[in-house]
Amino acid sequence: MDETRLEQLEQEVAQLKARLDRLEQQPVADTKVEPVSSVARPAVRPAFVKKQRTPVVKKARTRDEWENVLATVWLPRIGAIFAAIGAIFLFSYASMAGLISPAVRIGSGVIIGLLVMALGEFQYEKKRRELGVGLVATGTIVSLSALFAGMALYEFYPPLLAFLLEIVVLAIAYGLMLWMRSTALLILVSVTGFLLPFLQLSDEPNVFLFLLYEVLLFTAVCIAVLRLKSTKAYPVAAGIFFLALIFGSLTVNFETRPLMDEITLLCASLMAYLGTAYVGSRLPVTYNYPSWLAGGFVLLSLSVVDWSFVYGLAVLFALLAYVVANQTKDAWQNGVGHITLLFAISQLPVDTLSLGDQFRTVFYALVVVGLWFVERQQVPYQRFFGIAVYLMLMLYTIGNYEAYRLNGQSYAVSVLGLTLATAAFILLLVRTHGEAIWRKYWQVVLFFAAVGVFVTYTLIVMELPFYADLDQTDRSTTLSVAYILLSFVLVAIGRWRGTAAWRLSGLLLLSVSAVKLLLFDLSFLSLIQKAFVFIGFGIVAFVISRTYFKKRRS
Fold this sequence. Notes:
The chain is mostly helical. The chain has four domains: 111 residues, no CATH class; 153 residues; 118 residues, no CATH class; 80 residues. 76% of the residues lie in helices and 0% in strands. Helix 8 packs antiparallel against helix 9 and helix 14 runs parallel beside helix 16. The protein is flat, with a radius of gyration of 40 Å. About 1% of the residues have low confidence. InterPro entries: DUF2339_TM. Keywords: Membrane, Transmembrane, Transmembrane helix. This is DUF2339 domain-containing protein. It comes from Exiguobacterium undae.
């Protein structure tokens, strides 16, 4: 039995050896299997992926939904406004009929307004949000109207006490607004607070108190805007504050005001600029328009105050605008700084028709050159902004030339400034004419450059030492000769550089010279002047034409 079992084991071992030999003779395949992970590999992300906004499709409201919105949202708001107006009419009727005394009228108005605000808070706690907001708005309007009437109409208390009492009422409304997180109430508080006319209905407007009130309220509203992230209430609050600045500017401008009122107006406008710049940088807004407008109100305040060193304050504000641009990453704030620099130049304390007045043109020209070639503090479309300023500089120089000529004074400094700006304009186009930014506007920009060269060259000729001693006929002849020479120079530069713009400008100027000769010079020049000018024009025309024939043969 044991021998049989042993033979079976030997046979199995022999079979296993034979099988092992066959496996070793076959090629071994790599059958290694990597472990499968349950985490999907991230897709390869390209270097730049353009974000595409998914269009938001608003679902149309049904008739029942519109009915519910009208009854629960808009009806309480409209009712609040009408109830406040009705309360004001009721107090007016009671006053005219002699039913209640002014003191009782004012006191009851304030108390009723506060009670209505408390009722609004109660309705909000009962989950009637819009009704509660409407009642709080009604109570705020009634209380503020009663307090204002006590100060402006009946003079029961001075403006300072009215200021403090209204601050208390607005503080209550402000707290309720934050608690209810209501944008509508925020807008209402802004409107009712900023439009309280301390300035209009009093015999002696208190500009200091009025603007202090507006600045405090504007600060509180800005804090609420940031907490509620209300992009709708932000421009409304800024716009109402701008109305307050307009009221203050008109009062300071048309009345003799103390120094404190001027300082208050300037500080209030600065607070408006800094506040709107900060709030706009913290809100999800694409363009911070209120901040740019606030910069304009700072310039308005600087133009209203009667200080001799306003130009220095304008330079400081320009530096502040550049700092704000760097801190808020809003390049448009640099534009506020650029405009402020131009305003500072206009406010230089120099006499008209003087050498210092002419240096304004040089300063304007330096600003224009900076707009084109200084890379720091760039603003979008800055080159086009520089071209617009250059055109205004050219018109400013032309407009002042006649006044200096009638007074027999030299205009050389202003012409030097315009020459500097024109040379910078030509250099800009020579360096950057191939860039994509000029493709759509190249013809228009080139036209402005040609006009600038023509005007600058004309003023240079007029400022030649012998030009003032010539009579009218000799001056016209001098200009005609100068235009013909300039056209020849432009065509020569175009041929040398291989640029069609220069050649076309020269040919255009030569055409203008021909029209001037035929329509103007031909009528009153002497025979020798006509012969000289017309022969010179013909020689230049033949020389230019000869260069084109030579180019065609080559």
